[in-house]
Write a structure and sequence with these properties.
Layout lengths: L9 H26 L5 H10 L2 H12 L5 H24 L9 H5 L8 H22 L2 H20 L12 H25 L3 H18 L4 H11 L4 H15 L6 H7 L2 H8 L2 H15 L8 H25 L1 H18 L10
Length: 353
């Protein structure tokens, strides 16, 4: 998503599908545990693992490199417009639910929508020429100095410093930090794996079993809250390590599947559709009605299965919807390609890619 067109192994495309599934699962836990007031220690604890989805996308972008183009920009803007504006206009004009004061949010669909991730990623995308030139110009010592500086800003000041502009990690500084980590993994991948000789998937699995189990069994205690705080928000060291471990595990895979590549091309649509306020309203309403009453008391496993099934249904439905809009995205890309040729900016990846 946003990265330049380049042949990729299906392992990374599969990771993108897994990442968006994690994001949907995490978002739907809110409807079960908050909106439907369903007490679930498991859903609370498993969020430590599910919250890595956003960071995985940025790591993948750093690994392959973002190259700015109007072709990519026009497609991204077209998707944001098509998936957000028409449905919001209908929603606002409805006599029962219309929110006239929110019309400006619909018109400013790039800057005022609830899609914080896409907005932040769009900033990273626009700044990618500057970032890539910086990466191409630095040596090893400078690279690790910059990584340390970004860690200080994105992690320390965001958590210990309580800087309001950095808090939570939903900002371009943290995205630049994760992007550079992905780029560094790509640059030193061979030597890193030779030196460590580890099975990163089992390390990632063990890591999550330990922390998820701790938060599950000790939910509400001071220690569990501290563990959760250091492993949940997007700039927390634990969550960053969590994402990097799974990412490294997938770099070891060698897959070649046209089906995986075909489906992975639509993962952004899953995010845009399931995060749309109208879709979220109906999903929340459905979950609240489903769990109302006492039908699911003492049936935690059944509720978890429903949660998983609903999440997978949302992912599959969004992927299918996006394929219907393929001709629209191609038109947007075609218009962007014309502008690319006319301006001929010549932006490219750093040479190590």
């Amino acid at each position: 998503m946003g990265t330049a067109d380049k042949a990729r192994n299906s392992n990374m495309e599969l990771l993108r599908i897994l990442a968006i599934t994690f994001i949907v699962l995490y978002h739907l836990t809110v409807f079960f545990t908050v909106s439907a007031n369903y007490e679930s220690s498991f859903m609370y604890a498993i969020n430590l693992m599910l919250h890595i989805g956003v960071l995985l996308f940025v790591l993948i972008s750093g690994y392959f490199g973002i190259v700015f183009s109007f072709r990519g920009l026009f497609k991204l803007l077209a998707m944001m417009f098509v998936y957000y504006v028409p449905l919001m206009l209908v929603w606002h004009s409805h006599p029962l639910v219309g929110e006239k004061g929110k019309l400006l949010d619909t018109i400013c669909f790039v800057s005022r929508t609830p899609y914080w991730y896409v907005r932040t990623y769009l900033i990273l995308f626009v700044l990618s020429p500057i970032i890539n030139y910086c990466i191409a110009a630095i040596n090893t010592k400078q690279r690790f100095f910059i990584l340390g500086s970004l860690a200080l800003c994105a992690v320390y000041f965001a958590i210990a410093g309580k800087d309001a502009s950095l808090s939570g990690g939903k900002n371009v500084v943290n995205f630049f930090f994760i992007y550079l980590i992905g780029n560094t993994i790509r640059l030193y991948e061979t030597s890193l794996k030779k030196a460590l000789r580890l099975n990163f998937f089992y390390i990632w699995l063990a890591y999550n079993v330990v922390f998820v189990s701790f938060c599950y069994f000790f939910k509400g205690t001071t220690y569990a809250n501290a563990v959760f705080a250091l492993n949940f928000i997007y700039c927390s060291p634990g969550l960053i390590l969590n994402a990097v471990l799974l990412f490294l595990a997938f770099t070891n895979l060698r897959l070649n599947s046209k089906t995986i590549n075909y489906l992975a091309a639509s993962v952004l649509a899953v995010y845009l559709i399931q995060e749309h306020p109208v879709v979220r309203h109906f999903l929340k309403t459905a979950v609240v009605k489903l769990l109302s009453g006492n039908a699911f008391d003492n049936k935690a496993i059944l509720v978890i299965l429903i949660w998983i099934a609903l999440s997978i249904t949302v992912v599959v439905a969004a992927l299918f919807i996006d394929k219907l809009f393929t001709p629209v995205w191609k038109l947007a890309q075609k218009a962007g390609s014309r502008l690319d040729k006319r301006l001929d900016l010549g932006f490219s990846r750093p040479q190590e890619y």
